[in-house]
Amino acid sequence: MSRHRVEVLIQPRPGLLDPEGKVVHHALDSLGFPGIEEVRVGRAIHLEVDAADAEEARRQVDRMCRRLLANPVTEDYEIRIRAETEEERR
Amino acid sequence: MTIAVVTFPGSNCDYDCYKALKDVVGAEAEFRWHRTESLGDVDAVVLPGGFSYGDYLRAGAIARFSPIMEAVVAFAGKGGPVLGICNGFQILCESGLLPGALLRNEKLLFSSHDVHLRVENADTIFTRAYRRHDVLRMPIAHGEGQYYADAETLSLLEGDERIVFRYVDSEGELSHETNPNGSAHAIAGIINEAGNVMGMMPHPERAVEEILGSTDGLGIFSSLVEHLRSGPAAVTV
Description:
The structure holds two protein chains of two kinds. Chain A is 36% helix and 33% strand. Chain A is α+β, with helices and mostly antiparallel strands. The longest helix of chain A has 16 residues, at 54-69. Chain A has three helices and three strands, in the order βαβαβα. Chain A has one domain (2-83): Mth169, Chain: A (2-Layer Sandwich). Chain B has one domain (2-236): Class I glutamine amidotransferase (GATase) domain (Rossmann fold, 3-Layer(aba) Sandwich). Classes of the chains: A alpha+beta, B alpha/beta. Chains A and B meet through helix 1 of A and loops of B.
């Protein structure tokens, strides 16, 4: 068993209107940042999960995403396994 | 006859629903705390508006895993009437009792004002007191009320007359300006396929007495109570 640092990135589905992204895009334009094609605003969730290995941690977090963390009707999610935690390195 | 009003941490329209049912329509209403695992002997359930669990993650996403929701899903599965208002509608979508989802309002504003609704289907247990195409006035108060569903679901809802209310102007006409949140097909309320679970974003419980400025919401509660008085026995879950 080891501790895994997992990051979940949740995004509004492509094609779905993202009013928050639009507003941020507009604000960046107003500040003079050039060449922005698109802005989408999502959510990042960081978890520390105890699991046998990274794959098991990914499976656990995938189940969490399906059940609670993301809404399958409107959101896509991506799971990233980060480096091992300090505790594990010791 | 008993109608349960569920209180989640963060519900703020539970007393309004209770009062509408008990004092205005004259039904027996009882509160159920969200941690209760059983509904007991009840004939209908109301999920009231508010900000359950602070709307964290997504509105309704946490509330749908409250202990009582398992009983509500079972109750609905047996044909028991369930009405979800505002946050209650969001919880019904999150729990899968109704299709689709409620997104942030198109203009990102929290909208709190009266709207006009057109009754699209007056042949449901929640709308029999109205006539088709009646125009009702009642308040909305939400930041996440933009109804969204994929094209297939929307055409199913349209085809089966499961869109119960649409946002319109005072004349009953559809227009982009009177859609307060960018909802697909101007949807303000829908019903499930079996016809016993309805969700709506506007607040009928805030439009049940003259002193509130409108009594147009009363028909929803009186339709339900009339249906229960004329009909089936309690469903125990």
